[in-house]
Amino acid sequence: MRRFFTLLVVGCLALVGCGGDDTSNETTPKATPAAAANVDLAPIKDYLLEHTDRLVTSVELLNRDAQEYYNLAEAADFDYAKLLKDNRAEVQTALKELQGAHIQANPAYEEMEGVVAGVPSLADYDVIIDAGSDGSDPESAVPFSLTTKAGKEYKQPGNFFALVETSVFGTEPKFQVKGVTPDLDGDGKVTFPEALPDADFLLAATTDFLKYAKELDTKAKEWQPTLEDAYTAVVVMTPTMSEYFDAWKNSRFIAGGKAEEKGFVATSRLSDIRDILGGIVLIYDSIQPSVEKVNADQAAQTKTDLAKLHEFAGRLLSEEEGGKKFTASDADTLGTEAQRNAEAIAGQVSQAAGQLGLKLED
């Protein structure tokens, strides 16, 4: 989900601030990758495979629900006004199922995003599944287009989670049926999250989503983790807090109906932050023995700092779920604090990588 070069530079700058200069290295024993070869990276791959399997299962459910919704629309000859008139209850149920399936799929990916987005050989799938923009931003646009059963093409429409979420929760008008009011419960008004997505588009999106989820699962099985991969993931993915907090600030969870952000309406961005950091904690647990080879005290401190950052995100989420209303100002303050701590952690890990002689990919 990240631009590797930019964030690796952040990590390297933090490294300097953490004492990674020539003087400190003179008194710190250096270890080589060979000396750290006994580090067990299997838990990272096991964790990844567990989650790629979960993602495939979740997206299969999403695709099945999209097919059922498509079948309803097809039976009405895609006359959505007639569909609502004759089958309002069935449509309401179909949309609730789709929304629930999307919510289920979200943590299956977010918990492993630290690995997928942080490992260069897997990172393209993060762009495709969760991070890429539409074609209006060529630098970060997804590398695919969609073609529906009816033959309509959507060129570089955006990442799959955004496509599905903004479609089934009704926050992206261009994926909604035109000219029909999505009053799914028949109470004479439309309230969030009532939506009436274009069934042709939604089926195409979930079908291709499943294809790429399965591709990621295949690539994950082929992937042989290296110490460089693990360090890169921590250095690249930890200092991404500010962008997540910005998305949270602009989402419905803080801005309500005035939200500028069309995505992140189903699950709070705080949940994503907690889940991503949980994956990073697992990665660090695997590489900590190698960090201890160059600085045992720092290795323990980094573990503590990372655990505190993870707990910080979890506490904020618990407070939000408990009814606390955060403001945009709160999000800015909390995001600044989280980013500062995250950059320090990335710097510590980057320093250890340098002392071990590891070359982190950009």
From TrEMBL:
This is EfeM/EfeO family lipoprotein. It comes from Solirubrobacter ginsenosidimutans. InterPro entries: Imelysin_sf (IPR038352).
